[in-house]
Amino acid sequence: MMTEEEVEKRLDALNHEEIPEALSRYIEAQSKLNDAQGFVPQKLLSSVEEAKEDYLKLREEREELLRMLSYARH
């Protein structure tokens, strides 16, 4: 179980570093996919999906931490 301080630190890292970086990677991968003409290599499709999954996983973690923090404060 994380302390309130640990939750706040993790949220700060998610909000200011990890989520923006993951979103940037996803946007970059999606842009490369959009720029591809004709045949799209499986590796590119996989990188887009992986970037999207990473981003969504971090957002889920943030939501869970926010719930934990909310419960701890009430």
Characterize the structure shown.
This protein has 74 residues and is mainly alpha-helical. The chain is built from 2 helices and no strands. It is 86% helix and 0% strand.
Topology:
Blueprint: H1 4-35, H2 42-73
Beta-strand proportion: under 5%
Spell out the helices and strands N to C: HH
| Shape call | elongated
Count of alpha and pi helical runs:
2
Helix content range: over 70%
Tell me the major beta sheet.
Answer: none
Number of strands: 0
* Secondary-structure-derived class: mainly alpha
- How many distinct domains? 1
What is the C-alpha radius of gyration, as a whole number of Å? 16 Å
Spatial gap, N to C terminus: 17 Å
Mean pLDDT over all positions: 92
Question: Spans of 5+ residues with little confidence (pLDDT < 50)?
Answer: none
Question: Which short descriptors sum up this protein?
Answer:
74 residues; mainly alpha; 2 helices; elongated
Short structural description:
This protein is mainly α. The chain is built from 2 helices and no strands.
